[in-house]
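Fold this sequence, please.
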Amino acid sequence: MTFSFERFSATRRLILQGAGSVALAGLGNLIALPALAAANDKYPEDAFKQKGDKDAIQALYGRSAEASDKVKLDAPEIAENGAVVPISVTTTLENVTSISFLVSGNPNALAASYQIPEGTLPVVANRLKMQQTSNVIAIVEAGGKLYSATKEVKVTVGGCGG
């Protein structure tokens, strides 16, 4: 049996649009689940407003972090363009619940903060803006404690409008 479009009033375009609509409707459920989970997390607005890194860490976590060799911060020695400084952090710590990045020399120190779901590999990469040469700090919350790694990044051209 052969299929012929001539016997139907539907065009190929109409059929493709219908198939696309069905596919998008199916994806809607997948997209909504992470959005609902994220909506339940409280945005740390006060922490993002802090000028200094110690104040931002205190506002975000309520305590200070200890340096650890189990937190590996990968950032360039020299960033030629402060508007896009690639960084990443990995850790061998167990029970990681959050990872945050701070840039000491920026107008607001806290650059990014991520909640890490249970069972997720604790690896985060980002591109940060840096106004000037300063320390980049990675904070890892694991097992109810805070651990950190720090690296100075030299910026040749600032990325925060400077």
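The chain is about 25% helix and 35% strand. The chain has two domains: 5-40, 45-155.
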